[in-house]
Design goal:
This protein is mostly helical. The protein has a domain at 11-75. 47% of the residues lie in helices and 0% in strands. The chain contains five helices and no strands. It has helices at 23-34, 39-49, 60-74, 79-84, 91-94. Helix 1 (23-34) runs antiparallel to helix 2 (39-49). It is elongated and about 80 Å long. Residues 4-9 have low confidence and may be disordered.
Length: 103
C-alpha cells in the first residue's frame, strides 16, 4: 500500500497534451489580435479574469502558438501575405504614350 497522497497535476503545471483553449477564449484572443493588442497583454487579462495562473488550463506559450497559427492560416504574416496582394501593373509601362511623338 501506498501511504503518500496522490496529487493531480493541473494542466498549466506541465501535463502535456491537456492544454485546451475553449472557443470563448479563442474569440477573445482573435479580437485582441485584430485590434493589435500584444499577446502578453491578452494573456495577462485572461489571468486576471480567472483570478490566477493556476486557474487557466494553458500557458502564455499556448496563446502565442494559437495566434501565430491563426495568422498563418489567414495569411496575415509571412509568405502567404504576398500571395494575397493583387499584382500591380502600372499603366505607363504597358502602354505607349503616343502624344510624345506628335509635333
Amino acid at each position: 500500500m501506498r501511504n503518500t497522497p496522490i496529487t493531480l497535476v493541473q494542466p498549466s503545471q506541465g501535463c502535456f497534451g491537456a492544454k485546451k483553449i475553449n472557443l470563448r477564449v479563442k474569440r477573445i484572443i482573435d479580437l485582441n489580435d485584430e485590434t493589435r493588442v500584444r499577446t502578453n497583454k491578452t494573456f495577462q487579462s485572461l489571468v486576471h479574469a480567472v483570478e490566477g495562473y493556476h486557474n487557466l488550463p494553458f500557458v502564455e506559450r499556448d496563446v502565442r502558438n494559437y495566434v501565430s497559427k491563426q495568422r498563418r492560416a489567414l495569411g496575415k504574416e509571412g509568405d502567404g501575405q504576398s500571395l494575397l496582394k493583387p499584382l500591380e501593373i502600372s499603366d505607363h509601362t504597358t502602354s505607349i504614350n503616343t502624344n510624345s511623338y506628335i509635333k
